[in-house]
Every structure is written in C-alpha cells, then in structure tokens.
Amino acid sequence: MSGGPAAAEEEKMRVMVAVDDSDESFYALQWVLDKLLGVGNNNATDQDESMLRIIHVMEPFPHYVFPGVHAVFPTTSIIQSVNKAQEENASAILAHAVRMCAERMVKAKTSVLEGDPKEMICDVAEQMHVDLIVMGSRGLGKIKRAFIGSVSDYVIHHAKCPVLVVKPPAETNSLM
C-alpha cells in the first residue's frame, strides 16, 4: 500500500493543454486553470511547472502549390517570411497563455512544435508522460469534420492517455 503525504506528492497529475489562435483553445486553458488547477482543487502554491505543459503546434508551410496543372515553388524569401510570421504568431499565442496562468499564479512550461498538430499532440503527450491532454472544441459540423477531419477527434482515438475536449458554453443570444 502506498499511502501518506509523500506518495500523494509524487502522484500529481501532469496536464498538457494544446493551444492555437482560437477562442476555444483559450477557453479550454481557462477551464483547466479554474477547474483542475484552481486553489480549491490543487493548491496553486504547491503546483510546480511540470504539472502544466502548454503546447502550440505550427503546421509546416508547403513548399509547393498546384494551381492548375503546374507546380509553383515559393522563393526562399517567401518561405522565410512565412516562417517568421508563424514564429511570431506562436510566440504571441504562448505569451497570452502564460499571462493567463500568471493571473492564477500557476506555473507552466511551454513548447512550440512543428508538424501535423494531431500527430504532434499525441507524440509529445507520450514523450512527456502526460496524464491528461486538454484541448478546445472548434465545433466543426458533421460535413466539415468528414472532409477536413478534426484534430480533437484524431487525438481522442490515438492518444495513449485520457483526452478532455472542452466545449465553450452555448451562446445565449445565438437565436436572436
């Protein structure tokens, strides 16, 4: 039997929140801060950085496009410009997430990754030995989800740990 305060200290849950530039992903982070890591649940002053990981995955810029029948390759300067813009966007997204955590006095480690978001989220969660992946729901309709897929749907079916998809509350004025 492994009881006592020392065992409880070692068994803190490691949570990874995947964020992008959507309101839904920041709502999911806020939900984690309020419901999982809030002072009433786990004392925020006892929380360490290894408990909360916030990741952002940048999709690689395609180095070719097919408008019609011919392949078009962007110049090096265009690729560099797009990469710089993506890095600045990722930095701003994570800065906003860190501010949200700081307001609640919660420490978090952040990471920017590059690749296919759905695969990277699963891979990184496994590498980091995460206990729970949390992500926001974009609310794609059935048709869009069938054609373009859903990152959360993929992660739910392929992650090796539990996945929590946080849906924002329904708009009360949406019918007006």
TrEMBL record:
It comes from the Eukaryota. Residues 14-167 form the UspA domain. InterPro entries: Rossmann-like_a/b/a_fold, Universal_stress_UspA, UspA. It holds the Pfam family Usp. This is UspA domain-containing protein. It comes from Rehmannia glutinosa.
